[in-house]
Amino acid sequence: METLTIAQAAQNYLETVKLNRSANTARTYANALSAFFRVLKEYWIEPETSPTDKLKEDAITWLASYLKVFSPATERLYVQAIAGFYEFLAADKLAEVNLPRLRQLIKQRTRRPGQRLPQFPREDIEKVLLFVNNITIQLSDPPASTAQSSVQRENEQLRAMRDRAFLFTLADTGLRVHEACGLRRGDIDWNEGRALIIGKGDKQAVVRFSSRAMHALKEYLVLRAALDGANGRPLPSLPLFARHDKGAGKKVKPITTTTGRNIVAERVRQALGNYASPSISPGLASRITPHSFRHYFVTTVLRASGNLKLEQELARHASIQVTQRYAHLSDDELDRGYHEIFEQGINTKNTKEF
Q1: pLDDT digits (tens, 9 = 90+) for 222-245
Q2: Is residue 317 flagged as an active site residue?
Q3: Is residue 338 a contact partner of residue 225, using CB atoms and an 8 Å limit?
Q4: For a disulfide at 131, which of 9, 53, 75, 271, Cβ 3.0-4.6 Å?
């Protein structure tokens, strides 16, 4: 059996995670290992110097106790990452691990996260979409200030058209923000209105685009034609959504997920201001995120079709259980149904009887 320290083995484990999982997952697993190392040190086990055979199953219970100050979901995510580390040690024969006992300890010592229904302000998102649909910045319009150059005006117009296309894409495809930001022009089948992407879990999938999303994309790219043409790169290799700021200059650089979140935040502020629907808590409008548009997509499909399997396939949910989280009625629908049953129905019946 090869002798490695716990820290060395953990680094090897992270390398395999990076090869097989997303960058976000790798960061989460790295955070979990950091927390695990802190716990081990409290029990006089130094990961940097202690060999892997010093690691026993009981350490998972120490971690579970340490994580009680975190949410149940975070606790289970971190414990899952460390359980994977134990399995890695066992598979590479770096330590003797009793995996059945490990699983039993995890089952006994960790909390089960309660199910939370996805909450998002549907009406507010529709207001945002209506707002960006009406954005028109014409180059012939008076400049915002005399100091505003023609280049700044062009970039402002490009950003407006890009943001409209970006938000319609999020709302009408169900793409996650990193998936949308990573699209290239060549990924889109313009005749069929679809794209072939590599999504969550490194899985290949087909994503459909609505006619309004396709129209917005085409208008944006027509406006961007001169910039793309002067870039010297094949058009299919260029990003679908590009930066239009001083840092990008005349280069066609893809937007990052941070930019994608900023686009949502900025357009939400412009569309809603301090407004918040009466049905939601004040200030929630400022917390609409790119993922809120994915929720909007999922519930739109379910409202229109009532078909869980269709929604699962279109949203690319690995499990039907995830889909079922969205198959709930809104408070307004529940109130209306309750009123029809217990107010109108029963009152009508009682009136007839008396």
Answers
A1: 999 999 998 889 999 999 999 998
A2: yes
A3: no
A4: 271
- Could you confirm whether 291 is annotated as catalytic? yes
Q: For residue 233, what is the DSSP state?
A: S
Place of tokens 């302000």: 121
Angle between helices 122-133 and 257-272 (to 10 degrees): 90
Whether 180 has a pLDDT exceeding 90, the answer reads yes
Q: Name the nearest CA neighbour of 15 among 93, 85, 75.
A: 85
- Annotated catalytic residue within 164, 176, 244, 295: 176
11-20, 56-65, 203-212: least confident range: 203-212
Fold type of domain 6-109? DNA polymerase; domain 1 (1.10.150)
- Residue 189, classed as helix, strand or coil, is strand
Pair of tokens at residue 68: 């009680």
Residue of 184, 200, 212, 269 marked active site: 200
pLDDT band at 282 (very low <50, low <70, confident <90, very high): very low
Domain residue spans of the chain: 6-109, 122-324
| CATH (residue range 122-324) | 1.10.443.10
